Amino acid sequence: MMYFNVAIIGSGPAGIACAIQLRRHGITPVIFEKNEIGGLLRNANFVENYPGYADGITGKELITKFNNHLKKLNISPIFEEVIKVNFTNEIFNIKTDNSTYTSKYLVIASGTVPKKLNIEANNVFYEICELYKHNLTHKKIVIIGSGDAAFDYALNIAENTDAREVVILNRSIKTKCLPLLKQRALENKKINYLENTELNENMEYDYILGAIGREPNDKILRFAQNDVKNLFYIGDVKNGHFRQTTIAVGDGIKAAMEILTR
Ligand SMILES: Cc1cc2nc3c(=O)[nH]c(=O)nc-3n(C[C@H](O)[C@H](O)[C@H](O)COP(=O)(O)OP(=O)(O)OC[C@H]3O[C@@H](n4cnc5c(N)ncnc54)[C@H](O)[C@@H]3O)c2cc1C
Q1: 79 C-alpha to center of ligand 1: Å?
Q2: Predicted local confidence at residue 68, as pLDDT
């Protein structure tokens, strides 16, 4: 069984930042990633609040920079899904879909999962990077939601694909998004924003993209005991409404610094 001083679950911004800070102090952590490097940020159309990028940067470009940083420090994630974690005798036992590992410290940077739509429909997606695995040429995409993600997704599809039409369905008149994003969507001829409207059987569409919120991805990682030592939750998994890359990165650096003081 392989032993690591520090194990990190998730290679989104939080997990990456934590690994970078640890490496600067000579500790090489293991990062487990069940999907691709970058986490939820892979879905971001245009990040305009990351300091240093006054003209904005796409989520993909920012991830490439994060990934290059990891590579320079010789950190490469293990692409396995963590399915169970136990804490016994001050050691974490981490079971993945491929093997079992142990560590002294465990950092949970597992992000969030989407809230599911209460509809029966085909071709439903919850992350744009999954939708983009399909050809959207001449397709009509219906986005359900009224927050930043719904409007960011709409702009992403309208600006970067040959989709025929993008419809945003908001079941009320209230939006929870940045006014700037809404304004851009309203100005985009390909985007049709409908208030007080829910999906109905008369509505035609090729794909649905659900963006009605997210919840912590911590179900398999909850511990029965309260006194688990050397355990850290960082980033979106613990930040509630405050789900932002900069906050996740700050959490990652902070957790690494705490580990280094123990
Ligand atoms: C459309 C959209 C636009 C956005 N725009 C912005 C923006 O402009 N500015 C900004 O600051 N933020 C933005 N965000 C938010 C930003 O993407 C998140 O705040 C950030 O990615 C959170 O980082 P994280 O590392 O905490 O979690 P995540 O990025 O969610 O990463 C979690 C990682 O953990 C992995 N994982 C989960 N469970 C397991 C497991 N059991 N085993 C192994 N791996 C696992 C996942 O696969 C994932 O890679 C946007 C988000 C979306 C959806």
Answers
A1: 16
A2: 98
| The pLDDT value given to residue 225 | 63
Residue 217 CB less than 6 A away from ligand 1: yes
Ligand 1 pocket member 243 (CB < 6 A): yes
Distances (CA, A) of 192 to 29, 159, 164, 200, 243: 46, 14, 11, 16, 27
pLDDT of residue 222: 74
Instruction: Please tell me the distance between residue 203's alpha carbon and the centre of ligand 1 in angstroms.
Output: 31
CA–centroid distance, residue 43 to ligand 1 (Å): 9
Q: In order of start, what are the domains of the chain with their CATH numbers?
A: 2-113+214-261 (3.50.50.60), 116-210 (3.50.50.60)
Binding site membership of 145 for ligand 1 (Cβ less than 6 Å): no
Strand extents, DSSP E, 97-154? 100-108, 112-114, 124-125, 140-144
pLDDT tens digits, 3-47: 999 999 999 999 999 999 999 999 999 999 999 999 999 999 999
Contact 114, 15 (CB under 8 A): no
Residue 41 CA, closest ligand 1 atom number: 17
